[in-house]
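ARCHIVE RECORD
Type: protein–small molecule complex
Small molecule: protoporphyrin IX containing FE
Source of inputs: curated submission
Record status: active
Notes field left blank by submitter.
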Amino acid sequence: MSSENKIYFYPVWLRIWHGINALGIIILIFTGISLQYSNPDFHLINFKLAINLHNIAGILVSLNYLLFFFGNLITSNKKYYRLKLKGLFRNLTLQVSYYTSGMFKNQQPPFPLSEKRKFNPMQKVAYLSVMYLFVPGLIFTGLALLFPETIIEEVYLFSGIFLTAVLHASLGFLVSIFLVVHLYVASIGKHPAKNFKSIIDGYHDISGH
Ligand code: HEM
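STRUCTURE (tokenized, with ligand):
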């Protein structure tokens, strides 16, 4: 569905998922950092409160992930997540060159958005990695840490819980990096607030792309 220069890219279910996910992940990042660097003399957030908030937000993000997974599975939104490997490297290079140079020279984007193309190649690779590798990995390791009796005791002399915790924290770090880049990329455009509006009202404005 489109009107003039606007394309309806973000259906209601996707916006609900995105809002809950964004809030949940921000709580997880702050409480996660507080727990990672916890120190009896200084707490970013009170230790017990950080644990409780982290557990609640983790369960919320996990349940909400089901909305994303099945929403994408049963609606046409999945078509935007199909990745063609042929020419991918060239397409990614073109997009990186646009973000690092072309954009500042007022050049046209190499992959303008349309009804058929919601994401440029870089967004597609980032969204696929985050939503189908990093976030599920975080959920899986997080649930394992919530129920540590399910974790293998020892792997090559290393404690299973230790390895799970390292993997969990590393994935959390990757998702945090994604969020910073995501916010920066979302602010690129004619007006910094334009894209942020689209994930609230559903319509993406393609004028000026
Ligand atoms: C304050 C936090 C956030 C803000 C303001 C924000 C903003 C946005 C905006 C403006 C869009 C639409 C434009 C675009 O596609 O780039 C978007 C889409 C998206 N965001 Fe975020 N985001 C936030 C957090 C997150 C987090 C934490 C994740 C995942 C861990 C995430 C994953 C996605 C995905 C997968 C899409 C594309 C959804 C689709 O159209 O299928 N976002 N976000």
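CURATOR ANNOTATION: The radius of gyration is 19 Å.
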